[in-house]
Amino acid sequence: MAIEYVKDDGRGIISGGWLNQYHDITKEDWYHDCFPQWGTLLNKHIENYEVPKGEVAMWWCGGPSWVLKTDEGGIFFIDQYSGPAMYTDKSYCGVCNQSGSKSINWIRLNPQIIDPWEFKRLDGVFCTHKHQDHCDIYTINAALKTTDTKFYGPPVVAEKIKGMGVPEDRIVVSKLGESVKLPGAEVEFLYCFDTTAAQTGGEGMLPYEEVATSFLFKTSGGNILFLGDTWFHDAYVAVGQKYDIDVATFDMGWNASGATDKMTPYDCARVCQLLNCKVAIPDHYDNWVNTGISPELLCQQFIDIVNQNTPHIKPIRLLVGAQFNYPRDAEGDSYYRYPDDIYQTDPYDFENGKYAEFDVTKKK
Known about the structure:
This protein is an alpha/beta fold. The protein has helices spanning 16-19, 27-34, 41-48, 94-99, 137-146, 155-163, 195-198, 208-211, 236-242, 265-275, 295-309, and strands at residues 56-60, 66-69, 75-78, 86-89, 103-106, 124-126, 151-153, 171-173, 179-182, 185-190, 214-219, 223-226, 247-251, 279-283, 314-315, 323-326. The protein has a seven-stranded mixed beta sheet with strand order 8-7-6-3-2-1-16, covered by helices on one side. Strands 9-10-11-12-13-14-15 form a seven-stranded mixed beta sheet. Helix 5 links the parallel strand 6 and strand 7. It is globular.
C-alpha cells in the first residue's frame, strides 16, 4: 500500500515524498510551490530564533538584501528585494545615463529565500535609495498589507513609496544626523555617497542627502552599518572618526566600461579603511548578470587586499541565507560555510545511522 505523504508538515518547505508522487499540477501550483525557493523555512527560523543577550543577528538574503534581529526581538528589513529580473531605460535609470545605453537588462541570479508576505512581526523597512532592488514594490506591498510597520528612507524614497500607497503616517524621512529608537536598536541616519542614485531621474546630479542614506543600527551587540550601493568617497573618513562601527556591509561587483554601479574590491577595502570598521561584509556581487563576475574571484581579491593592507579589519564572505551573529561570529573564518545543522528541523544523529555499528577493524 502506497504511503500518502502530506505536502508540508509545517516546516515551510515541501515534502520530498509528496514530490515523488503524481499530483495534478497547474501553472499557479508551480508558482506557489516553487517560489520562494526556500518557502517560509527562513521566515520561521528568523521569527523563532532568540538572539542571545548582547548579540545582534543578521541574515544575508542575497543581492543587497538583509534581515536584522535584535536581542529585544525587533525584526528589520534592509534593502529587501523580492522582485524578478527586469529592464531599465534612460528616462530614469542612473546606469543608463552614465553609460549612454537606452536600456539595460538586469537578469537576476540569486534565489528568493524569504516570503515577505509571511512575517508575523516586522519593526521597520529600510530603503537606502529608490532603485527597484532596494525600494521594492513587492516588499513594500507585502509589509504594508500584512504588518503595521513603518518605512524609512531619504526624501526621494519617501516620495516614491508615498506613490505606492504608503500613508504618510507610516513614512519616516531619514534626515541626516537624526535617528529613531526601535526595539533593540537606535538607528542613525548617515551620509551615503551613492553617485548612481544621484544620477537617477531628473537632470544632472541630485544632492546625496536627498537620494541616499546609510543606516547605522546601534544595538547591544554592536553597531552595524548598511551602506547600500555607495561609491567610494573620501568623506567616509569623517564617519569613521565620529562613529564606532563594528560591522559594515556594502556593494561589490564588476562594471562594464562607463557603467559604474558597484564598487570594485579595491574600493570596498578603501571604504572599510576609512570607516575603520572591525568586520567588513560585501554584498550585491551575486545577483545581477551585468555587474557579475566570478564571486570567488571578487571575494578572494577583497579578502587579500584587506588582510594585506588593514589586518585589523576582518573581511568575511557570506553565502546566501547565512546567519551572522555579532560579536559571536566575528572571530570565525573569512570564508563562511553552512553548519551541518543549519535550518534543520531534526539534527543529524549519526549514532542511529546506517554505519553506526560498522566494524572498521573487521578482517576478511
